[in-house]
Design goal:
The chain is an alpha/beta fold. It has 10 helices and 14 strands.
């Protein structure tokens, strides 16, 4: 490698990713460059998040923007607290902001001057991040996924999805890095203790994505350069990390895609942080 190429690699910004929780106990995802940080959903306790940030040598002051996918408590519980304490703007659709205002689980409400509106399908530039929200079917007031472009890579997150739409397929096909829901195993759900109405809700087109449908969504829409997939929002009662991973691996294999060779595949932990993932464009 010549000196110019080496210097270019050293000075190129790098995007990093940490999941601080993924599941009904609380969802929180963090993307950051050396200058700016962006958090997606804040359903974990703020004191817990502060400690976890310190464990990584980070501070909440490194967060510059908050994005919210939808207004269920496990995604927004601490949004008002973190916005107030760190003076952070919170970006969401108008419907999601309205839902946050109505949600009794959000004990500290957002100050009006901290609310920022996003519109499905419209790009916005947040510092280092180019953000595009897109519609995701779920039984919240409204739900969106996000495509984020920064440091030469495209990151996409899809959580709490009852079905895969054509628009979602397009965003999956653009991703270099993908976080996507693998919520439940159908057999575990149907044989489990949930009441029938809840089973029907989870399996509906506005419920949650099962392991197999998650695998099909990846296999049928991924681009050749997709590097890493993280399975998110696993059910504690109706799934298991190893089962989710093996099911998705099996589906990928049906399409001639080998996890660990063609793409990296991991399951995000429900209640504990991952390590730091470096998202590179090479």
């Amino acid at each position: 490698m010549n000196y110019f190429v080496l210097l270019q690699k050293i000075t190129t910004k790098m995007l990093k990713f940490i999941s601080f929780g993924s599941g009904s106990s609380g969802n929180c995802y963090y993307l950051y460059t050396e200058k700016e940080g962006l958090i997606i959903d804040i359903g974990v306790g703020i004191r817990t998040l502060k400690k976890q940030f310190r464990d990584f040598g980070l501070s909440l002051s490194s967060i510059h923007y908050v994005l919210i996918t939808h207004d269920h408590a496990d995604h927004i519980k601490s949004v008002g607290s973190i916005s107030h304490e760190c003076h952070l703007p919170v970006y969401a659709t108008k419907n999601v902001h309205d839902g946050i205002d109505r949600n009794f689980c959000v004990t500290r409400k957002l100050a009006p001057d901290m609310k920022r509106m996003v519109t499905v399908g419209e790009q916005l530039q947040l510092g280092d991040f180019r953000v595009t929200p897109f519609y995701v079917p779920h039984d919240a007031t409204e739900n969106v996924g996000y495509q984020l472009e920064a440091c030469g890579v495209t990151f996409c997150i899809i959580t709490d999805a009852g079905a895969i739409t054509d628009e979602m397929r397009t965003f999956i096909s653009h991703a270099d890095y993908l976080v996507i829901e693998a919520n439940h195993d159908v057999e575990m759900l149907m044989q489990g203790p949930y009441p029938q109405h809840l089973k029907e809700r989870i399996q509906s087109k506005t419920g949650h994505l099962c392991n197999r449908d998650c695998g099909v969504a990846i296999a049928e829409n991924m681009k050749e350069g997709l590097k890493h997939v993280w399975l998110c929002h696993l059910s504690e009662e109706n799934n298991h990390p190893e089962l989710a991973r093996k099911t998705v691996e099996s589906v990928l294999r049906e399409y001639g895609i080998i996890a660990g060779k063609d793409i990296q595949l991991e399951v995000l932990k429900r209640k504990t942080p991952t390590g730091i993932f470096e998202l590179t464009d090479d």
